[in-house]
Design goal:
The chain is mainly α and 103 residues long. It is built from four helices and two strands, in the order E-E-H-H-H-H. The longest helix has 17 residues, at 41-57. The protein is extended and about 55 Å long.
C-alpha cells in the first residue's frame, strides 16, 4: 500500500518544498527579500531597489505575507502561538514602574 502524499498548490502550480511554496505565494524568490550570502554592496543595492519597486507597485504585499506566515505557523507549528500565563504568585509591573519583576 502506498502512503498518501499531501500535495500543495499555489494557483495551478504545485509547490514541492516549503521554499517553493513561499516563492509561489509571494511571486518572488526569497533571496530578493532575505539577501544572499556574500553578496556585494552593488548586488545588495540592486536587490533592495528591486524590492522597493515591487513594494511601490504592490503596497498590500506585506499584509499578505504576514497573513501567509501566520497561517503557516498556525497550521504547521501551532505551539509557537500558544501563550502561557504567568504563575499566579508573581507581581505584575505597574505602567510607570521600571525595574525587575519580583519572582
Amino acid at each position: 500500500m502506498r502512503s498518501a502524499r499531501t500535495r500543495t498548490f499555489v494557483g495551478d502550480r504545485e509547490a514541492l518544498t516549503p521554499t517553493e511554496f513561499a516563492e509561489l505565494a509571494l511571486g518572488t524568490p526569497l533571496e530578493l527579500w532575505l539577501g544572499e550570502e556574500n553578496e556585494t554592496d552593488e548586488e545588495r543595492a540592486a536587490r533592495l531597489d528591486a524590492a522597493r519597486d515591487i513594494l511601490a507597485d504592490d503596497p498590500g504585499l506585506p499584509d499578505r505575507v504576514s497573513q501567509i506566515a501566520a497561517e503557516a505557523i498556525e497550521t504547521y507549528a501551532p505551539q509557537l502561538l500558544k501563550v502561557h500565563p504567568l504563575p499566579s504568585g508573581r507581581k505584575s509591573r505597574s505602567a510607570g514602574h521600571r525595574g525587575a519583576v519580583a519572582a
